[in-house]
Specification:
Blueprint: H1 5-28, H2 32-44, E1 48-52, H3 54-69, E2 74-76, E3 90-95, H4 101-113, E4 116-121, H5 127-131, E5 134-137, H6 144-149, H7 154-175, H8 179-183
Length: 190
């Protein structure tokens, strides 16, 4: 039990505002041609493969699910039923630091196979960023405020979710999809 319950509420609201403001500012910095190119790559690819480690992987899995619901073929890298990436496919990797061994290894395979590589990262100078066909940078400060209100990559992950959900909305527009057509592809869980 805390000594001052009202103080916890104020931290919650300050954190929520901080996260929302920082994420909105960063996403507004992405230039429209980058988004248009990402949508073009994703909609033209025979299949899209999504990868991220840790919490970025959770965001990636959510994105892959929405890609399927919007009528595209999508897989999550690392699942036992995921086929091999082929020339012409798209690979979408989310990695806050852009230096994880597994992400770089996946990128190397993608480049060898001749697929398009979309990288979302917080470090434009990372090895992963340099391997990309298309880079979508999500830059956030690493300061004491960030560490207090949005620790351990929270800003990147929150922005990743909003970015991928907004990409789905743009893909819906391009493909003429609606929530109703997407619902018809929604998995039925028993």
């Amino acid at each position: 039990m805390t000594e001052n319950p009202g103080a916890e509420k104020s931290i919650f609201h300050r954190s929520e505002r901080y996260i929302g403001d920082r994420v909105s500012t960063t996403l507004a910095e992405i230039d429209p041609p980058t988004i248009a190119r990402a949508v073009q790559i994703l909609t033209k690819a025979p299949a899209t493969f999504v990868y991220g480690a840790g919490r970025s992987g959770i965001i990636g899995r959510a994105f892959a699910m929405r890609l399927v619901q919007v009528g595209l073929t999508a897989y999550v890298i690392g699942e036992s039923v995921t086929p091999i990436v082929r020339r012409g496919d798209a690979v979408f990797i989310l990695s806050g630091r852009g230096e994880s061994y597994s992400s770089i290894q996946a990128a190397n395979i993608v480049r060898r196979e001749g697929a398009e590589l979309i990288v979302v990262t917080g470090r434009s100078t990372s090895k992963l960023a340099h391997a990309s066909t298309l880079l979508i940078p999500l830059h956030f400060p690493d300061d004491s405020v960030n560490r207090r209100f949005a620790p351990l990559g929270t800003l990147f992950e929150s922005a990743g979710l909003r970015l991928t959900d907004a990409l789905i909305a743009e893909i819906m527009r391009v493909r003429g999809e609606t929530e109703e057509t997407m619902r018809s592809r929604h998995a039925i869980m028993v």
